[in-house]
Amino acid sequence: MKNLISYLPLLLCFSLSAQKEYPRIDSIEVNDKIFYGEIDNRLITIYLKHYKTSEEKNIYSVTGWYYFNENKNKKLLAGVSVDNAKLVLFNFDNSILTNQLIDFQFDFFWANLHEDLETHFHSYKEKIMISNESSYWSNKENSLPIYLYDDDLKIKKSLAYLRLNQKEAIKISPLYIDIKAYNNQKYILEYLYEGIGSGQCGTGVERGFSILEFDNSYNLLNSEMFLFESCAQSINTTEEIINKDISVYICENNSSERCKSFYVDTNKIEIKWTNTIDFEETEWLTSLSLDKIRQLLIEKD
């Protein structure tokens, strides 16, 4: 399951218009980045921008430039980002090679991408390789070490913030798509992850809820995630709506240890695990009061 809660401790302050509605989820798409660093002890600046995403795994092309800070003579760059952990960048003599590279107009296999790039684009003027294992600048005559001050190589990223009120917001995973219910201190968020890539669950979907609870100073007290669909974790549930406030998600795969039934109560702002209820008596359940339904669900736990 994707890490959805790791961003939460970061509390941010904003100067926002009083006419905006709160709470809400605001999303930001970031498509470029500036790096500062050194090549053989000479200060450099590198600017890269996302250009095109490949159909192969987590690979996308980038364009940009770099220069030595001492003269600011820009040299154009084109390259690829691999798994947000490696950058392979080239400076070419002509735009034909640049366009072939950034539009993925060459044959490659993602596991051998570096070797395939060397095969197809060996006539480069300069090359920059950046990764956690090895970083260097090279041309046909020389190779020099590169050191970047920032080791986050992700150029394209999505950011999201749960804006609690006019002044406070908290950074959350961009997989959150909606606020299902809330009161002053508790929030039920819905999230959706649509996989990319190959394999049995490469294009699978992961869906669920998280419940977040804060104190009066907006410090996070508790958080818990509840999946109702996940190919990777063999979770499949059926939603049964008890009334306008309560829905139960019944596990349909008892062979999976991670598949559990739970109910969502948007009136009390709570989500709790429960054993499967006999929904042949759904009509009888819907005639009960909210308190009786909650008591029944807890007793079945």
Characterise the protein shown here.
This protein has 301 residues and is mainly beta. It contains four helices and 20 strands. The chain has an eight-stranded antiparallel beta barrel. A hairpin with a 4-residue loop joins strand 9 and strand 10. The longest helix has 10 residues. About 5% of the residues have low confidence.
Low-confidence stretches: 5-19
Largest sheet composition:
8 strands, antiparallel, barrel
Strand line-up in the sheet with most strands: 3-4-5-6-7-8-9-10
Number of strands: 20
Which assembly state applies to the chains in this document? single chain
Nearest-angstrom radius of gyration? 25 Å
Give the N-to-C terminal Cα separation: 24 Å
Our count of domains comes out at 2
The number of helical segments is: 4
Please summarize what this structure is.
This protein is mainly beta.
Q: Which labels suit this protein?
A:
8-stranded antiparallel beta barrel, elongated, 2 domains, mainly beta, 4 helices, single chain, 20 strands, 301 residues
List the helices and strands and how they pair.
Blueprint: E1 11-13, E2 24-30, E3 32-39, E4 42-53, E5 59-68, E6 75-82, E7 86-91, H1 95-102, H2 113-120, E8 126-131, E9 136-138, E10 143-148, E11 157-163, E12 168-172, E13 176-182, E14 186-194, E15 205-214, E16 220-230, E17 235-241, E18 246-251, E19 262-265, E20 270-273, H3 282-286, H4 290-299
Antiparallel strand pairs: 1-12, 2-11, 3-4, 3-10, 4-5, 5-6, 6-7, 7-8, 8-9, 9-10, 11-12, 13-14, 14-15, 15-16, 16-17, 17-18, 18-19, 19-20
